[in-house]
Structure to design on (207 residues):
């Protein structure tokens, strides 16, 4: 792999990572609802989800999804339903007082990690994207595995930077607002963002 090809890959992935999709909207919504403590579990879940999606793509599930309308629809509507569930939960959530937040911190982090992982890993469009996208940057005349590993590590590195930036920004906004009433509005904003992610996912079509 030449340096020019790698730089091109970096540029394309950066654009892909900052375009608002279900994962980005989920992260923004959760970070708005839960503040800066959500950054690490959300980013960790997204990274593991992307790693799983890339692995599934490379072992052939992406090709199956590209040809199976039923499987694509099953994964898509599972994701829609899960995002709606998270949106309702965020919309109805009451702002935490400091002691309650500390007491529920571990459970909340586990829940945020699980939600970002599931939405990212089971996004059928991402799996199809990986199986069609990554091979375009692989030189078939050279050893394939090292090239794929470089591309995967690069992709995860860029995603970690962009998702962390989104989550930190939303978390800082949440942290600076002390009013309980304003936090209630932020929870509803986060819930609305998740409903938006569900609506975005529902429009996905097989490419």
């Amino acid at each position: 792999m030449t340096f020019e090809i790698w730089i091109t890959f970096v540029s394309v992935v950066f654009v892909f990572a900052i375009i608002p999709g279900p994962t980005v909207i989920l992260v923004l919504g959760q970070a708005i609802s839960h503040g800066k403590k959500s950054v690490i579990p959300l980013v960790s879940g997204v990274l593991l989800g992307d790693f799983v999606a890339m692995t599934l793509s490379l072992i052939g599930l992406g090709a199956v999804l590209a040809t199976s309308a039923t499987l694509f629809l099953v994964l898509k509507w599972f994701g829609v339903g899960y995002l709606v569930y998270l949106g309702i939960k965020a919309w109805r959530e009451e702002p935490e007082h400091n002691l309650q937040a500390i007491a529920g911190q571990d459970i909340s982090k586990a829940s945020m990690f699980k939600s970002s992982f599931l939405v990212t890993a089971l996004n059928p469009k991402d799996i199809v994207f990986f199986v069609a996208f990554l091979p375009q940057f692989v030189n078939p005349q050279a050893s394939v595995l090292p090239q794929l590993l470089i591309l995967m590590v690069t992709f995860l590195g860029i995603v970690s930077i962009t998702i962390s930036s989104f989550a930190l920004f939303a978390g800082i906004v949440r942290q600076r607002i002390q009013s309980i009433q304003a936090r209630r509005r932020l929870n509803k904003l986060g819930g609305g963002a998740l409903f938006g992610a569900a609506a975005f996912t529902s429009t996905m079509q097989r490419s």
